[in-house]
Each structure stands twice: as C-alpha cells, then as structure tokens.
Amino acid sequence: MEFDEKRYNLARRLKEELSLSEKVYNAIRKVPRHLFVPERYKSEAYVDTPLPIGYGQTISAPHMVAIMCDLLDLNEGEKVLEIGTGCGYHAAVTAEIIGKSGLVVSVERIPELAEIAKRNLYALGYDNVIVIVGDGSCGYAEMAPYDKIYVTASAPEIPKPLIDQLKSGGKMVIPVGDTYQILYVVEKDDGMKKWSWGAVRFVPLYGKYGFRDFEE
C-alpha cells in the first residue's frame, strides 16, 4: 500500500506538471517501478530521479520516461523498438500503452542487465516485450520496420540503421550529444524531419554507430 500511494502521487504530479496524456499517466500509475530497481533503492523508487541499476547504468527518471512516451504518441497495437533495456522499466511502461496486441523489441548491450530485465518483465506478466542482447546502435533489423523507436542512451548522431528501420510515417525519440545533449524527435515520411525538445542527460550509447564499439 505504501508503494501504491507513492506511485499514485508521482503519476498525478507528473500529469499536472507535464500535461501528460491519459494513456501515459495510466501507464506510469500502473507500472511498479520499485520492482525494477535494486533492493537498496526501493525506498527511492518514486522519487523523480534516475537511480543506479549496476554496470554503470541507470533507470531513467520517471518524468523522462513519461515525456519520451508522450512525444512518441504511442498507440495500441504498435511495434516499438527500444534501444537500451536497462532494468526493463521503460519497456514495461511502453508495453502498457501499446497493449497486448502491440510488441516492444528491446536491445540491451549488457547481458547481465538483459537477464535482469527479462526476469522483471516476466514476473510482472509483460509477454509483449522481447529482450535481445546486442549492439543497440545497429537497431534490430530482423523485426523491422517499427512504428516507433526510442533510444535511452545518447548517440554522437542519429544512427542510420535506426532511420532505415523506422516505418514511413513513424517517429523516433533519441538524445544526441556528448557533454551537451539534446533530445530530438524524428519523423520519417518522404524524407526525415527532426526537431529538438530540449537539453537532457543520458548515459552514452556505445556500439558501431555509437561513441565506440563496446566490444573493444
């Protein structure tokens, strides 16, 4: 009950402060973030801040997850590519919005985190999420094209494979930059249009189309 109340209060505050859509608000309110964070951080699960999840990675602040979901305008039944699974929380929020008829394909470069995410998602019944270990900067061509793509790590530039794997009419949200990062919304139609949402701070995207090859 303690966590339920904290989660409700967080979701309500984010809805008011960010003017969240009802579907994003409902997903933030429903997904139990405390079950995705390490035990020692459970008491801070509903504080609106990033938290360490091990291996030099973090779980994004709830407001950033909510903002990215809103910017993508996720809809029921869509196929979504997530780059950077982490502990699985963002994928769970996305999975709530797109529903059982939708699918989240999530790529994580760190095998240990991928396993943690799989366990978390399985325990909560999110069978509309597939977690794959690999180089997220290359996307996942085997299941392309995707209606929506979002990236939870900052790239030096928008990776071409992600643009190629996005459907015509699709949308991508991605942070770009090193020391100074900007969150971009990319829309693919006849060409590619992008606009900046604002300054953000994410961990770096490593890989072939990231800052360096993570296998080096």
Plain-language structure description:
It is built from 6 helices and 9 strands. It has 216 residues and is α/β, with parallel strands linked by helices. The protein has a domain of 137 residues: 3-Layer(aba) Sandwich (Rossmann fold), CATH 3.40.50. The strands form 2 sheets. Strands 5-4-3-6-7-8-9 form a 7-stranded mixed sheet. The chain has a two-stranded antiparallel sheet with strand order 1-2. Helix 2 packs across helix 4. The longest helix is centred in the first third of the chain and has 17 residues. The protein starts with a helix and ends in a 16-residue tail after the last strand. The model has no long low-confidence stretch (mean pLDDT 94).
Which terms would index this structure?
single chain; two-stranded antiparallel sheet; 6 helices; 216 residues; Rossmann fold; 9 strands; 7-stranded mixed β-sheet; alpha/beta
Summary of the model, kept short:
The chain is built from six helices and nine strands, in the order H-H-E-E-H-E-H-E-H-E-E-H-E-E-E.
Q: Please tally the β strands and state the result.
A: 9
CATH class of the domain at 64-200: Alpha Beta
By oligomeric state, this entry counts as single chain
Give the class from helix and strand content and strand pairing: alpha/beta
User: Order of helices and strands, N to C?
Assistant: HHEEHEHEHEEHEEE
Please give the alpha-carbon distance between the first and last residues.
Answer: 46 Å
Radius of gyration: 16 Å
Order of strands across the widest beta sheet?
A: 5-4-3-6-7-8-9
Q: What fold name stands as the CATH topology of the domain at 64-200? A: Rossmann fold
Outline the low-pLDDT stretches: none
Please state the average pLDDT score.
Answer: 94
Please state roughly what percent of the residues sit in beta strands, choosing from under 5%, 5-15%, 15-25%, 25-35%, 35-45% or over 45%.
25-35%
Q: What profile does the largest beta sheet have?
A: 7 strands, mixed
Query: Which second-level CATH architecture of the domain at 64-200 applies?
Result: 3-Layer(aba) Sandwich
- What's the helix count? 6
